[in-house]
Amino acid sequence: MKKSLLGYWCLYFLLFPLMNCVQPYVPPVIKGNNTYLVVDGFIRNGQDSTIIKLSRSANLGDSAGPQPELTAQVLIVGQTSGTYPLINLGNGEYVTDQLNLDITQNYQLRIVASNGSQYVSDYVPVRQSPPIDSLHWQPDSVGVSIYVNSHDPQGNTRYYQWDYTETWEHRTVLTSTIEFVSDGSVIARPPADEINRCWTNDNSTDILLASTAGLSQDVVNENPIHSIVNGSEQISFLYSILVRQYAITQGAYEYWENLKKNTELTGTIFDPQPSEVLGNLHCITNPAEPVLGYVSACSPTSARIFIDRYQLYIWNFIPLSGCSFFVPRPDSLAYYATLPSLYQPLLYCPSTCFTALAFNDCIDCRYEGGSNVKPIFWPN
């Protein structure tokens, strides 16, 4: 036993200096000053607005994350004629409405950044997306899955990309029929100020692609677009999804496919290993500077569907629990009226009506970030 303990102590004294010599290693990719321009968006021909989002990449160790490029100048320029400036909306977003591009010529994106650096994309053709044949949903073991079907009888598309905007209605547990006025008294709440019914929008973040290049026919069949987990608030009442379809080039497809592998399929040792992804954007003031993104031009097509909660046999949505109200002294109402971010009034009538208050998360649907303005496409 003594010899065994002596061996442990000898090993400890041999390793102790080595343990003190261990230094943390910070790879250059984490601590480097790599703020490259990131370009995200489609040149959309037709009725849809073109929105280009510009930001600066962040290092892996940067807690602030990517920062928007705020004061750039952005143009869409035709190869032979036509220049279309984009308006700065703020927060790195640049927009132009309803482009009417000449589909017989190619176009490029030109950017002058706030630091004076100039960037251009390659000239790209304006491709025409075929119509979406059908957009439908079906329940499954996860919840609900949404699929798209499309085809090009001419066989000219072959490479498809999609994005979507989803909108859902949500309601509060309690309903307010009155509102405060400046002196602390209450009045009937106008229909336009209704706060128990809201709508929330969200945009896709996944890279959605399909290729029919290896098929005899240019047909996309049952391509998955989105899944909603059972019990999600998104289908607590009524849900809608607008899917936009783009015809893209082979080069664009290969770029987004590689990016998808690098960002979404690197969770196990069996997934593809990360590799360099080269887009079609270049810095002309410093050709050695990388630019992230790929610009395409397309006349997109779209389709919208609705899913009603009552179309589903089982949907385990659980409303917010613990919601209650209290009745303050009448002379305290003026005080509570100064705290609109915490309380809202509601009219409670067991036998005679009086003013009660409840916390915002139980009575104001905007508390979750939604809007109480009904979308123009909403059916009721």
Summarize the structure.
The protein is mainly beta.
- Tell me the radius of gyration: 28 Å
Q: How many helical stretches? A: 5
- Mean pLDDT equals 87
Hey, roughly how much beta strand do the residues contain? 35-45%
Could you describe the largest sheet, including whether it forms a barrel? 6 strands, mixed
Uncertain residue segments:
268-273
Q: Please tell me the total number of domains.
A: 2
Counting DSSP E segments of at least 2 residues, the number of strands comes to: 27
Helix content: 10-25%
The end-to-end span amounts to 83 Å
- Specify the structural class: mainly beta
- Overall shape: it is globular
Secondary structure: elements and pairs:
Blueprint: H1 2-20, H2 28-31, E1 37-40, E2 43-44, E3 50-56, E4 67-68, E5 73-78, E6 83-85, E7 87-90, E8 93-96, E9 107-112, E10 118-121, E11 126-128, E12 132-139, E13 143-151, E14 159-171, E15 178-180, E16 186-188, E17 197-203, E18 208-211, E19 219-229, E20 238-247, H3 250-264, E21 281-283, E22 291-292, E23 297-299, E24 301-308, E25 325-326, H4 333-337, E26 343-348, E27 354-359, H5 360-363
Parallel strand pairs: 1-22, 2-23, 11-23
Antiparallel strand pairs: 1-3, 3-4, 3-8, 5-6, 5-9, 7-8, 9-10, 10-21, 12-13, 13-19, 14-17, 14-18, 14-20, 15-16, 20-24, 25-27, 26-27
